[in-house]
Design brief:
Two copies of one chain form a homodimer. Chain A has seven helices and six strands; from the N terminus they run E-H-E-H-H-E-H-E-H-E-E-H-H. Chain A has about 260 residues and is α/β, with parallel strands linked by helices.
Amino acid sequence: MNVLLVYAHPEPRSLTGSLKNYAVRRLMQNGHMVQVSDLYAMRWKTTLDSDDNTAYRPGTRFDPSADSMQAFQTGTQSADIVAEQDKLRWADAVILQFPLWWFTMPAILKGWVERVYACGFGYGVGEHSDTHWGDRYGEGTLTGKRAMLMVTAGGWESHYAPRGINGPIDDVLFPIQHGVLYYPGFDVLPPHVVYRAHKTDAAKFDRICHELGQRLDRLFDTAPIPFRRQNAGDYLIPELTLRPEIAADQSGYGIHAAPNRPED
Amino acid sequence: MNVLLVYAHPEPRSLTGSLKNYAVRRLMQNGHMVQVSDLYAMRWKTTLDSDDNTAYRPGTRFDPSADSMQAFQTGTQSADIVAEQDKLRWADAVILQFPLWWFTMPAILKGWVERVYACGFGYGVGEHSDTHWGDRYGEGTLTGKRAMLMVTAGGWESHYAPRGINGPIDDVLFPIQHGVLYYPGFDVLPPHVVYRAHKTDAAKFDRICHELGQRLDRLFDTAPIPFRRQNAGDYLIPELTLRPEIAADQSGYGIHAAPNRPED
């Protein structure tokens, strides 16, 4: 199968960099084709702006969505964006690998999402009607592909526990797993998170690699997080609130995954 | 008082840009001094890398935290970082204004946080002991200052309701309000959020300005969100989980604010 690893760390000799190298080797040993988008090494343009549409006319009003849609539809996107979209189309699975900086991905990776997820590609897909609010949250361009986060965090695991001060890790990652990956159609696997990343000796590194290896070996047969599909009946449209009878009287991120739902 | 507005939108004629202009005028009419960091206009360097430490020696291993700490302590930070830190020291209140892109701030603003919040300034402050886990979450360099988010979102308010598909807006903004603003000591005010931002006619714009004006007029006497201080007894140290008897049997972001707690 084809695996795209999008990697965001400035130092190749970091733990994050070492785990990237390990992951690439393991995936190739398992017979997969692997491409790596090493954003720092590529000197990825982080900031979304009017230069992303090569047909933008200076002096006109720049609209991030409308310009993105026009560029996507008319073939005037900048070449670096097109290349990443092609990699996404090629991939059967995508891994986003990054250190958790200020409780989310580094800016360089956020800029990858903003620029590569063009309007018409990553969002703004499909029809809006009384029963269908765009192809998103379970439907979209990237349907049928799998995605997984590989995260290194400085804090302790307990700091990200259900009652930990940083918030539960599932909540911290929800805007990425649900909002960035499930939104355009990916099946999202449980994340692989390494805590206290800066306190890693040789024995811990071996243990991390072993655990990561197990996850990568099962990349294509691990059950995804059972997020609820937007247009499959669980939500009122256009309010997009969960129907009152489902997870009644509950709220928050947790209600958007269905416990024990069989895979469709 | 002194107000710093950090603003992140690529188009001055956008709704976000118009609200920025309105806010600056209103704050000045109220007698405040105002500085604006217009990140796109400044062509802010978004990506954190070894160039941020002017004393970095090429070929050596770059450590984002250690290099940042060294540069901060020895005066070798790049000039753009120093200038923003000086603005933060000058400010009595800081407003972060941005469009909600993929459920968080734009990459250019995330890069501002990553680079300006140097180790020793935004984190890595204070001693670690059995009763005090660094000056953070209610203590730190920016203690005594207020902060507020001004956010424009494309989605509907119901999409960000407690049972909305995007997640509750308080949860969406928690990693910024708690993790980026409360962390180094800011008192964080409730956010000002505009929904369906791309559907704004003249009447709606007037209404938004009126509501925003009210919020800005009360910038210095609005009660902050009562987040719990890390080192004031509510958390076990070093686990940093909320003590079992507080908000017993509850979990998630919500437990980190104390309902009806009097302001200290």
